[in-house]
Request: fold
Amino acid sequence: MSETTLISFEGLQAQTERIVDNVIKKVAVNISAAANNAITKKNDGLHVDISGKVDKVKNATAGNIPVFDSDGKIADSAVAVDGVIKKVAGAKVGNIPTFDSDGGLIDSGINFEKLDHLVRHLVRYGYRIKKTEPDPYARVEYIYDAVGFTPAKMDFENDTFNFGSWSDVWFVKDIKPLMLKNDGTVDYYLYENDYSIKANGDDVTTPSTAADSDSDVANTEYEGNAMVQIPLIWVKRYEDDDYIYEIVSNVKWDKNYKAYAHTNASGQVKQYFYYSMFDGSGSSSSIRSLSSKTVSKSLTASQQIQGATANGTGWYIHTWSQRELIRTLCILLGKSTDT
Reply:
């Protein structure tokens, strides 16, 4: 059996002719009309356009960096990759490279996945208060990422607190009750529904089942206090003729965002500050934050400071910036100035 194949064209259709044992058999083959198809029709037959093909570079040295010449063709730069990018000793997989002061490549110490996660979760929650509106609920309007949120409120019928849309926001999730030692270290967390019981680790939504699950929340012999952990929050406040604006963020969004409530006496911004769970009890010799104790109402400001600092280094009474932050959060969560 002998076989010969011929090709002819009709428009954009190629026709294959096969001569098998002197019998001509024709099979139609379509040529795609898609853009940039390298197969085109010519008068004398099938044509493959190779004008855009990257040619091999003559006399190129292995390991050199390719570049374009003045005609747009690939050429050898004569610069070796090893001469430009060198291995960084001690670099960790997944970290972002950066340059040192001499222009050398170094490990930034910043993990790309963690940075990507942070960037994807940068948020600003804010509100503005209309100065001329007397209704405490009508005068507050959500802005930025708070738009569309349902405010938090107390469900008195079921005796529960409804967080609305705010339950998964960082400053709600990370606010936790705990026992703080006098040296400033967290001893353990408290079960949020019953402070007399320790939490299951740092999960304050479930109680500890350990044999020693009783907490020291009312123990005057305990060397520490019952406190609330408040995570780092950056705040921006300003106003114009019509509105008062307050915005909180999990990052320092710009130079106007401040973290005064989380800045210690040395000017360091801390990841948390700790706020007393209970009004102060005791005297000027030692003021405590413990459950079911008589509140010390007759102390002067100086005596309160003296009693608070007696707990140890870093202890002090509530600051204005801390109270202002809590006020801001209350308005934000409740979408009302009556919170």
Observations:
- The CA atoms of residues 17 and 26 lie 4 Å apart.
- The helical segments are 81-84, 112-120, 170-173, 301-309, 320-334.
- The first strand starts at residue 3 and ends at 10.
